[in-house]
């Protein structure tokens, strides 16, 4: 199935999704990689707010390349999500609803996805220019010293994604190979 979603999203928005479905995502999407995640944890440890509204938010694990003249963003392909596994459950418990990246996630993250009615969506690895074409606006929110890893607010339109982990415990990295082997 294919779904259209607009952020911020609710648990009800995400409940119909199943591992393997496609999503065209629109609305604000925030960016952060491991260095920014570490700083977000430090903010939370001090009781300070995050640099974006976390409830129902989508967080894309990306460090975009510099934009060319006339472009909003440079290449914006996903980074390996496993590097954020130590931080993701805490953010999901605070209300983050969507994680976007590539690669497998730990069992702790999978459990947090189900516990919070969240999803993990995969962006197309190696297709950074395609992903960038969905970005209509960009604003650096904080930590410019991190360069491409600064936290940004992207405004996306029909951002093409695949559901990897769904709210019901489905995992495309498990069900996909199993379905292939069963069809042989």
From TrEMBL:
<protein>
    <submittedName>
        <fullName>Fe-S-containing hydro-lyase</fullName>
    </submittedName>
</protein>
<dbReference type="GO" id="GO:0016836">
    <property type="term" value="F:hydro-lyase activity"/>
</dbReference>
<comment type="similarity">
    <text>Belongs to the class-I fumarase family.</text>
</comment>
<dbReference type="InterPro" id="IPR004647">
    <property type="entry name" value="Fe-S_hydro-lyase_TtdB-typ_cat"/>
</dbReference>
<keyword id="KW-0456">Lyase</keyword>
<feature type="domain" description="Fe-S hydro-lyase tartrate dehydratase beta-type catalytic">
    <location>
        <begin position="5"/>
        <end position="175"/>
    </location>
</feature>
<dbReference type="Pfam" id="PF05683">
    <property type="entry name" value="Fumerase_C"/>
</dbReference>
<dbReference type="InterPro" id="IPR036660">
    <property type="entry name" value="Fe-S_hydroAse_TtdB_cat_sf"/>
</dbReference>
């Amino acid at each position: 199935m294919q779904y259209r979603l607009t952020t911020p999203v609710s648990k009800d928005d995400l409940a119909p999704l199943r591992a393997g479905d496609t999503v065209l995502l629109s609305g604000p999407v925030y960016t952060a990689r491991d260095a920014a995640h570490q700083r977000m944890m430090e903010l939370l440890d001090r009781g300070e707010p995050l640099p974006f509204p976390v409830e129902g938010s989508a967080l894309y694990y990306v460090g975009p390349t510099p934009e060319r003249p006339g472009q909003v963003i440079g290449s914006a392909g996903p980074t390996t999500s496993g590097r954020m596994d130590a931080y993701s459950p805490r953010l999901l418990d605070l209300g983050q609803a969507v994680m976007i990246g590539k690669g497998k996630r730990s069992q702790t993250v999978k459990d947090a996805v189900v516990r919070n009615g969240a999803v993990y969506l995969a962006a197309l690895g190696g297709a950074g220019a395609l992903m960038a074409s969905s970005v209509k606006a960009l604003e650096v929110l904080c930590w410019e010293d991190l360069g491409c890893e600064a936290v940004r607010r992207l405004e996306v339109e029909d951002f093409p994604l695949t559901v990897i982990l769904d709210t019901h415990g489905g995992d495309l990295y498990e069900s996909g190979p199993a379905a292939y082997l069963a069809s042989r």
